[in-house]
Specification:
The protein is α+β, with helices and mostly antiparallel strands. The chain is built from five helices and 20 strands. The strands form five sheets. Strands 1-2-3-4 form a four-stranded antiparallel sheet. It has a four-stranded antiparallel sheet with strand order 5-6-7-8.
């Protein structure tokens, strides 16, 4: 009987081990994070992507599997990883010796010129941890693109708005994203741009003699440049045909929103004449 009990016990243990090699068993930490499992004598975070791919991340070994050690909250694990990543990136930037120029651009100890932007470190965006990117080439800093050093006149370079910059030769646009964005020669993005007559209307809109431009999306093909007017500190505008919020036309049903209603009221009080801000 004793041998039978021992044999049964060992069989159950062996069966459990085989089962857990094949099938994840739900695990709970103190934060009750989702998608944690005991699996193959370790603790894993197991997710399924949108396209159905299974993604596994090992969070602990056998001691955490049997409960001797606890798996920390996932936010704690992520923040530690991102902090290490942030320090590594900062160390790399220090090696390049970046320093700020009076015009707002940056120069390295090797003489490279860069536009500095911040981006969210890879991981859960709830952490909000960012690192700096020094873009030395136009566009999304692709290798084949021209360098800022070869194009920009730093003596006359200045910021016009969050999105627009200029020097004596060109207009430039920064398109911000969580990944750092792009910095472009705006003429390359919008070939119809007239650099000579380009003027800022407010923080969101600009115009030249022919077209209206939104700070992020660029050319507003539907906007009438001759009758286009804007609110000073808000992303609202109008022309003889439409009302606009950012780069989009405000449809009739959207005009019932209280914020939009107030903006339209302000726009209707403005004189319908060409606005120019020197």
């Amino acid at each position: 009987m004793k041998k039978f009990i021992i044999g049964l016990f060992l069989t159950l243990i062996a069966s459990f081990c085989i089962y857990n090699i094949l099938v994840p068993i739900k695990y709970s930490n103190s934060c009750h994070d989702e998608n944690l499992y005991r699996y193959r004598f370790s603790v894993f975070k197991i997710d399924t992507s949108i396209i159905g791919e299974v993604e596994q991340e090992k969070l602990g070994g056998f001691s955490k599997y049997i409960g001797i050690d606890k798996v920390p909250c996932l936010d704690t694990i992520l923040k530690a990883k991102l902090t290490i990543q942030e320090k590594s990136i900062d160390s790399l930037h220090k090696l390049h010796g970046w320093r700020l120029l009076k015009c707002g651009l940056w120069i390295s100890k090797n003489g490279d010129i860069a536009f500095k932007s911040d981006y969210l470190l890879r991981g859960d965006t709830r952490m909000g941890l960012t690192a700096s990117r020094f873009m030395t080439k136009f566009g999304f800093d692709e290798e084949i693109n021209p360098t800022l050093k070869s194009v920009i006149d730093t003596a006359t370079f200045k910021q016009l708005t969050y999105s627009f910059y200029r020097d004596k030769n060109n207009i430039y646009q920064y398109y911000g994203t969580s990944g750092g964005g792009r910095f472009s020669n705006f003429k390359e993005v919008e070939p119809k741009l007239d650099v000579v007559t380009f003027k800022i209307l407010n923080d969101n809109y600009a115009r030249d003699k022919n077209f209206v431009y939104d700070g992020r999306q660029g050319l507003m093909a539907d906007a009438d440049v001759k009758t286009f007017i804007v609110l000073k500190d808000e992303p609202f505008a109008k022309d003889k045909n439409n009302y606009y919020q950012w780069d989009g036309i405000i449809e009739k049903e959207e005009q019932q929103d209280s914020t939009v209603k107030q903006a339209i009221k302000k726009l209707n009080k403005l004189k319908n004449e060409k606005q120019q801000i020197p």
